[in-house]
TrEMBL record:
Keywords: Hydrolase, Membrane, Metal-binding, Transmembrane, Transmembrane helix. The keyword Hydrolase applies. It comes from the Bacteria. Pfam families: HIRAN. The lineage of its organism: Bacteria, Bacillati, Actinomycetota, Actinomycetes, Micrococcales. It comes from Cryobacterium breve. The chain crosses the membrane at residues 34-52. This is HIRAN domain-containing protein. Residues 151-252 form the HIRAN domain.
Length: 276
């Protein structure tokens, strides 16, 4: 009865329908109750989007080419460690550049007395090729005779050029990498990880190639790798393919020995671990 009296008094004094005011206040309270959960959901969406953009390299819009930050190491600084020393790049030969025939390959692709192959690496159009030194003819990177000479071809597939690879300096021919055995890998006991020389994981050797290469690494042979080519432009929205040439430091040094006095490509190594 007292409440009814107050309502009548308010209605009479202020000329405002009390029921309308109370209904309005009730709706406002409901809106305030919904505002909290909405804010939490919005914060989660923003956090997930930021994580995908930074860590996974995902972006709904066309991504910009990664810019080096003040904390990033110089892309081509040198770190000697256990990798072979920097070698002058092989030049383009003036004689025939067609592929070595199967017959000639069987005859010429034989290691010398020091166990080194009769091959050099040469640059043609920004891509590194193997060239047989006596004929000047090209040898395919995937040639089945190469493993017998201590040379392996490795392809890193579905590589996102927008993320760490650009900062690691791996998107150019001659960039060096390391192969690291993972014998306790749950998925594959022959697993071989591919690391930049700063220690960052950039991919894995395919199971087919790792099956033969794992025994070589387990025997204590050091195997390093060099980027031969990259199939996609830096900043592209499509994943790319990095082709690597792997061999012992001695063999890599031999392959990079100059065969004439013009044209150079250098094996370049970043010098310290980059932060994510």
């Amino acid at each position: 009865m007292a409440g009814a009296g107050i309502s009548v008094g308010l209605s009479t004094t202020l000329g405002i329908p009390v029921r309308s005011v109370l209904n309005h206040c009730g709706q406002g309270g409901l809106a305030m109750e919904l505002l909290g959960p909405f804010a939490i959901v919005l914060a989660c969406v923003l956090a997930i989007t930021a994580w995908l953009t930074r860590v996974a390299g995902y972006s709904a819009a066309e991504p910009a080419i990664p810019q080096r930050r003040a904390t990033d190491a110089p892309a081509r600084a040198w770190n000697q460690l256990t990798l072979p020393p920097q070698w002058p790049a092989p030049p383009c030969l003036s004689i025939g550049r067609d592929r070595l025939s199967i017959t000639d390959a069987n005859r010429l692709l034989v290691a010398d007395a020091q166990g080194l192959p009769p091959l050099r690496v040469q640059e043609h159009g920004g891509v590194l090729w193997l060239v047989e030194v006596t004929s000047g003819k090209l040898v395919g990177i995937g040639d089945a005779r190469l493993p017998a000479l201590g040379i392996w071809s490795i392809w890193l597939r579905a590589v996102d050029s927008r993320t760490i690879l650009a900062r690691e300096g791996l998107l150019h021919s001659g960039a060096a990498l390391r192969l690291v055995r993972q014998p306790r890998n749950a998925a594959d006991s022959n697993a071989i990880a591919v690391h930049s020389v700063t220690g960052r994981l950039v991919g894995y050797v395919s199971p087919r190639i790792a099956a033969g290469l794992a025994a070589v690494l387990d025997a204590g042979t050091s195997i390093d790798a060099v980027v031969v080519s990259f199939s996609s432009r830096s900043g592209s929205s499509q994943p790319g393919l990095i082709t690597l040439l792997a061999a012992s430091p001695q063999t890599l040094s031999h392959l990079f020995e100059p065969v004439s006095s013009h044209g150079t490509v250098q094996m370049s190594l970043p010098d310290e671990l980059l932060t994510g």
